[in-house]
Amino acid sequence: MNLLKEVLKHEVFPAMGCTEPAAIAFCAASAAKLLDEKIIKAEIKTDAGTYKNGLAVTLPNTNGEKGNLLAGALGILVKEPAFKMGIFKHINKDILKDAKKMVLSKKIKLILDDTKKGIYIEVNLKTKNHKSTCIIAGSHSDITLLSRDKKTFIKKKSSKTNKAQPYKILLKKKSIKDLFDIAEKLDAKDAKFIKDGIEMNLKASKEGLKIKKVGYYVKDLINKGYLKKDVFSNARMTTSSATDARMAGNSVPIMSSGESGNQGVVAILVPHLVGKAFKVKEKTVLKSIALSHLVNAYIKTYTGELSPICGCAVAAGVGAAVAIVYQLNGKDIKAATLAINNVISDIGGMLCDGAKSGCALKVASSSDSAIRGGYMAINHEGITEVEGFIGKTAEETIKNIAYISNKGMAKVDKVILEIMAQKNIT
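RE: above sequence
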């Protein structure tokens, strides 16, 4: 099995809008495709992380509308699962109008199932004579059950334990040293795909600067001389503006990493911008981004797809820092370990309170930490196991932060959702 190709295939893809509401829409479209009659009742059930991420993020092509319920209604009306994570690209005025009517009519219901761990979306639809069900589990597009009435079209073990995704089982057994070796074998086809991802995310960044949010004001500080024009400020500006565009629902695709658009922004653009600043050869930069994707995916085999801790910090930011080490020091495992320790020590406690415009601030912080932590590491300076929860090896540090996230912060999502629920948004 070629692990890099598997990671690129399953976790690195273009997505329009936030991936969680897009996954809800995809799941709803898959269930709706099986029915020819008018839908009279719809029920959407999600895990806490998916529910949280879809609450406050703007949906593309909806004139600023938000919410998991609307995402589900849009998917039902688009009714084409082939669009997958690009489903919001196909929203028009009539579909939006009908979807809003569906939400207002109370024909569609949203249920939070906090017993589910990892990504879990279940859509149940009912017409006068038929009913259909679609379940996604373990990843944003992995359908584990698809049925109409008593006929089952897809049924497989839930991938929430990674059993349906063999590449994750294998990836979790690897070491950071192994990931360097895998990235070294980047072929021309995958290199082009990674290069396309750079261009895609840079284009989104330019669009994000137009809407005067986080990236715009970083640029304003640079223009007025309050921030020095350097690789740090450029990375903060470029990554945050790309996230601004995505979280504002702009109709621009983002190349994801670890199935997350925001993580894709950090994992791809930070190594690209650093490589450009330090005049690193393009081939090396592309391999470093491949490594960034691998590290991001590797960490998430421990933390889970959606964790209480921000993935841009403990996964994508770490991946970007290791990529910087590769660019400037090559296969320096000691430096890579320090880079991992530095970023996790710095922003390992960054909470995830759902997808929304504030994610651009976290992306800016993650970009800054990745560059600072990576640069310290190439000079063999950084945090060691004598401090806090840092382990003796990179792998141990990753396991420690995952343990903190999964065990120590087990109630965080529930508490955050209690606070968000008081705002009466769905």
